[in-house]
Amino acid sequence: MLDPKLSGHKGKLVGFVTVIFLSGMVAGALTTKLADRYFAEPGGLAQEKQVALQHFSEELDLTEEQARAVEAILDEFIMQQADLINTFNSSRLSGHDRIVEVLNEDQRRRFQEVLTELNTRRRD
User: Fold this and answer.
1) Of 36, 49, 75, 76, which residue is least crowded by CB atoms under 10 Å?
2) Mind listing the pLDDT tens digit for each residue in 5-49?
3) Owning domain of residue 67
4) How many domains does the chain have?
5) Is 9 among the domain residues?
């Protein structure tokens, strides 16, 4: 199954695949935490933005113009966070796809089961 020229590197290959898998798990866990915090809660970031804006307005005695500028900055920040979450998700899925490429059919099936188990644990 493994090219004889690569048989001496089998340990390195297994280590590399393990690192990719663990990186995907960590990225997935972080993404899930961020998504749960900001998108799964009622109101999410929009509600947090309004609370922050009101707090800054009161504490800093912002003018209307300043409040609009701060709101625009917060909107931009929210979009940047959403982009980062999308980047994490894409990276995780890309890692999963690359792992699947090196697995045989039984390993692929078990890999999917492991991912499902991990996702279930994260939600609990």
Assistant:
1) 76
2) 656 667 776 777 776 766 776 666 666 666 555 555 545 667 888
3) 14-123
4) 1
5) no
